[in-house]
Structure formats: C-alpha cells, structure tokens
Amino acid sequence: xxxxxxxxxxxxxxxxxxxxxxxxxxxxxxxxxxxxxxxxxxxxxxxxxxxxxxxxxxxxxxxxxxxxxxxxxxxxxxxxxxxxxxxxxxxxxxxxxxxxxxxxxxxxxxxxxxxxxxxxxxxxxxxxxxxxxxxxxxxxxxxxxxxxxxxxxxxxxxxxxxxxxxxxxxxxxxxxxxxxxxxxxxxxxxxxxxxxxxxxxxxxxxxxxxxxxxxxxxxxxxxxxxxxxxxxxxxxxxxxxxxxxxxxxxxxxxxxxxxxxxxxxxxxxxxxxxxxxxxxxxxxxxxxxxxx
Length: 292
Fold this sequence. Notes:
Order of helices and strands: EEHHEHEHHEEEHEHEHEEH
Number of strands: 11
Oligomer: single chain
Radius of gyration: 23 Å
Strand content: 15-25%
Helix content: 25-40%
C-alpha cells in the first residue's frame, strides 16, 4: 500500500508517494516543515492531545523549584502548577495576587469537600514546593495526606483554572475515588473543562475538548443524552482488505444531533443493558421502558 501526499494550495504538481508497509514512522510524525501546511497542522493538533491517567503517588509528590509548572498526564506537579497560576495576572487589567488564585481554586475544590484555604508552601532552603490544604477543622494538610479522590478532583480543578491547558483531554473512569454523593460535582467540573461552543474561544473560554470513558451507571445517568456515545464492536469492510475486520464504533443516542443517515443511533435500552450487566446494577433512564 502506498500513501499519496498531495500538495496544498490547489497545486497541480504530482503527489509524493510514500510506502506504508516499510515506513518506520507515519507521514504526520515525519512532517516538520511548512511545505505541507495541512499535514503540519494535523501534527500540531495531535501533539495537543493528552491522556490523563492520574496516579495518587505522583499527585502527592512535592515539586522542586525547577519542576514543570503544568499538570502532567499522571497528575504530577500540582504544587508547581498552582504556584505558577498564583504568580500570573488574572486578567488583562493587571489584577494580581496569589491569594485570589488560591481562593478561586479552593472554591472549585469546595464542590467536593469542605475547604478553608489552599496554598503552596515555598521552602527556600530545600527548594521545594508543597501543596497545603486546610479544612474547616484541623490544621493544614500536605498533598501527601489527602485522599485519592480529593487529589484527582484537585488536578481537574487546576486544569480548569489553567488557561494554558488547551487541546484534547482524554480520561478513563474519572469517577474513581469519588463518593457517589459527589458525582454530580465531578460531572459539572468535567463539563466546565470543555470549551463553550456557543462562545468564541478566549482566555476565559479555552479551546478544550474532553472525552471520558466509564462503566459507572451513576456517572452515565448524570450526563446529557447528546453527550453520550456507546462503544460497540462491529464487523466492517475496508477497501483493499481481503476479509471483513472488527472495529470499534462509537454510536450516539437516538434522536440526538449526532445521528445521521448512516447511523440513526441506539436506544436508551441498549445503554441500560450494557450498564446493568451483570444483573444487579440499578439504573433507570427516562424513556428507557420498552426501548430496545
């Protein structure tokens, strides 16, 4: 199989062939110049994709002064990220002050737990940054003493507050470690992370997309129907392949905007059957009765 790389800008030049079978890397990964602007744009977009696999051990670790000041894919560098945000202007008007940033992130976190204050301890002698959280009762607690669920929620709060965190965020089972009574807060936080498509992207509306997967009936029940996609295996035919192959399809719910002539969507009953297998999981979706 040969990949034909066509020239941009309506040029009538001959496409550049590239053998797919023997290529050690993809066309996108090897394109680094502006001679192929479309491929280069695709490369830049793919580079902004991140898969979050938040690890409690990484989130509990204090940061050196030289640590990256952005939340890592495993959740590391919470203290360095919060410290950077506290040192930046909040808006174009020049309103500054770490206390305002700490209070803002603490307010986001308070949707999960009671928080009196949140700050970063700056140890000049050891050159270490430690995230400290104070609850209404008791003294300050370092990140290493916080629960897994609190740390996961805090990492998402920092991503939400960080205007530089843009692109696609993918996350598996974000409800892990979250008490069912606080699941709604997690859903709202994840929804707020994504760009508001009704407004133009700007500093207060960063260009972010969020994709999560879950097996939690409770998490699914709290979603808007148009936001749900059901993953299922299907047999498909691909050009130039001798036999059908199995592929994963993401199907929308019936009567939502994602449906089209090629896919009319699945009924709520299909989602119900998936989430209640094995029997015993209790989930009722509006309109699911009698829906196949």
